[in-house]
Amino acid sequence: MRERALPATPLPHRLASNAPGRVGHVQREERPMRGIFANRWWIVFATVCGLIVGGGAVNVFAFGVFLKPITADLGVGRAMFSSALTMHAALAALSCPAIGWLVDRWGARRIMIPGLLIYAGATACYALIQASPFAITFLIFGLTGIVGGVGTPIPYAAVITQWFDRQRGLALGIGIAGVGLGVALVPQLAAALIAAFDWRTAYLGLGIAILVIAFVPVAVFLREPPEARRAVDGAPATPLPGIEPGEAFRSSLFWGLAVAFFLDVIAINGTLTHIVALMTDRGIALQAATATLSGVGVALILGRVLSGWCLDRMWGPYVAVTFFVLPMIGIALLATGATGVVPYVGAVALGLGIGAEVDLMAFFTSRYFGARNYAKIYGTMFGIFAFGVGIGPALSGGSFDLFRSYTPIFMVYEVFLAVSCVIFFRLGPYPYPAREPAQAEPALKMPA
Fold first, then answer.
1. Which of 50-59, 184-193, 385-394 has the lowest mean pLDDT?
2. In the prediction, which pLDDT does 434 show?
3. With DSSP H G I counted as helix, E B as strand and the rest as coil, what are the percentages for the chain, rounded to 5?
4. Which residues contact 52 (CB under 8 A, 6 or more apart)?
5. Which tens digits make up the pLDDT trace of 74-104?
6. 415 within domain boundaries
7. What is the CATH number of the domain that holds 358?
8. Is position 79 within any domain?
9. CA 230, 232, 235, 240: dihedral to nearest 10 degrees?
10. What is the domain extent for residue 352?
11. What single DSSP character describes residue 60?
C-alpha cells in the first residue's frame, strides 16, 4: 500500500466515493462501479458479510456448539479436542502475517477471491474429523488455520483504512461488527443443522454458507481506491504516511500492544468457547445455552460500533481500558457459579469486551504505525493475537479436566486483563492522527 494524498481540487460526482487522485485518472477496474454502487460504504457492507462467516464465527464461536456433540460421538476429552483448536490457532497465527504481506503486495481483492473459495472448502473438511487416528483431526484443523487468514479482518481492515480517514473508527467498527453478526447467527445455524441432521452435515452447511454470504458480496463490492490500485500495479503513486515493518517490530510500542491483545483474547475466547458447555453443566438446556451466544453476538456488534464511534472522538487507550474492564466483570460473574440470569449477564459483558478488541487493534495500528505498511504490521499483530485464540480454549479445557471446574482458570484470566489495562494506560499520543479537512473542499469530497 502507498499514499493516496488528499485531492487538491473537488472530485466530480462520479468519484463521490472519495477515491483520491487526479480527476479523470481512474483505473479500468473502477469503471463498472457507478452510481450508488460506487459509494465507499459498500466496502464496509462487503466486510460485514465476509466476517459473518469469518474465522471467528466459524472456527471459534461455533466450536462451543460442536464441542459436546463431537467429544461425545468420538469419545475424546474436551482438553484433547480443544488442543486441535490450539494447533489451528498456531498455524493461523503464522498465516496472518503472510496474508498481510500478500495484501500489501497484490491487493486485497486479488487475494480474497480465490482465498474465500479455498476457505469454504477447508471448512467443509471439518466433516471428516475422527478420533482414530486423531492426527487426521489435527491435519484438518491445521488446514483451516493455514487458509483461514482470508476469514480474518486483516484484508478488510486494510481496504477500509485506504478508503477512510476521519471516519476510520466508525467504518472499522461497523465493518468488523460482522463478526458479531456471525457470533449471533452461525452458532444458531450450526445448532439447527446438528439437531436436524448431525454435526458432520452441519460443517458441510457452514462451508456452503461461506460461499453464499461472503464470496458473492466480496466479489461484487470489495476493491481498493484507484490510487492504491495503481501502487499495486507498479504505477507511480504518492507514499502513504507510516513506518517500515522492521522499525515497527523493533519498537516496544508494537510489542506492548501485541501482548495486551494477546492476553485479552486468551481470557475472553478461553471463556466464551466453553460458555455453552459451562451453562449446560449447570443444568441449562442446550438451546438456551446456545442462545446465550446470540446475546454475545448482539453485545459484540454493539461493542464494535460503539468503540469505533468513541475512537473517532476520544483518546483510544481510555476507550480500550473501558471495554477491557467489562469482560473482567463478566468473568467474575461466571466464576461465582451462580445460575439464573447471572451467566447471561456475564456472557454479554464478555461480548461487549470482545466486540472492541479487533476494532481497537485495527485502529491503533493505523494511528501508531501509519498506513504505508498497514497490512504487514496489522497482520503480524493479528497473528500473535490469533495464536492466543487457541490457547484460551485449551487452558479452559485443561482446568475443567483437572479440577472439574472453570473457576481456577477464570482467576488467571482476570490477571491477564488487568495487565492489558496497565499497558493501555502507558500508551502515548498518536504519531499519525486523523488529517484535518481542507477548508476549501466540500465535506462530501473529503476522505473521512
1. 385-394
2. 75
3. 75, 0, 25
4. 178, 179, 181, 182, 185, 186, 213, 214
5. 888 877 887 888 788 788 888 888 888 888 8
6. yes
7. 1.20.1250.20
8. yes
9. 80
10. 38-233+243-431
11. I
> DSSP code of 371?
S
Whether the Cβ atoms of residue 194 and residue 202 lie closer than 8 Å to each other: yes
- Of 210, 324, 331, 334, give the one whose Cα is nearest residue 284: 334
pLDDT per residue as tens digits for the range 264-295? 999 988 888 888 878 887 777 777 777 777 78
Q: State the Cα–Cα distance between residues 268 and 282, nearest whole angstrom.
A: 20
* Dihedral sign, Cα of residue 228, residue 230, residue 234, residue 239: negative
Give the three cell numbers for residue 432. Answer: 499519525
pLDDT in tens, 206-219: 999 999 999 988 98
Query: What gap in Å lies between CA 152 and CA 323, rounded to an integer?
Result: 21
Question: Taking Cα atoms as reference points, which of 261, 360, 383, 262 lies closest to residue 304?
Answer: 360
The candidate with the shortest Cα–Cα distance to 312, out of 161, 171, 167, is 167
Q: Is residue 4 part of a domain?
A: no
Give the Cα separation of 394 and 389 in Å (integer): 9
- DSSP letters of 114-166? HHHHHHHHHHHGGGG--STTTHHHHHHHHHHHHHGGGGSSHHHHHHHHHH-ST
Q: What's the average model confidence in pLDDT over 148-168?
A: 84
Poorest-pLDDT segment among 218-232, 243-257, 418-432: 218-232
- Show the cell assigned to 440: 476549501
Q: Distance between CA atoms of 80 and 20, rounded to whole angstroms?
A: 52
Residue 268 lies in a domain: yes
Count how many domains the chain has: 1
424, pLDDT greater than 90: yes
What does pTM read for this prediction? 0.71
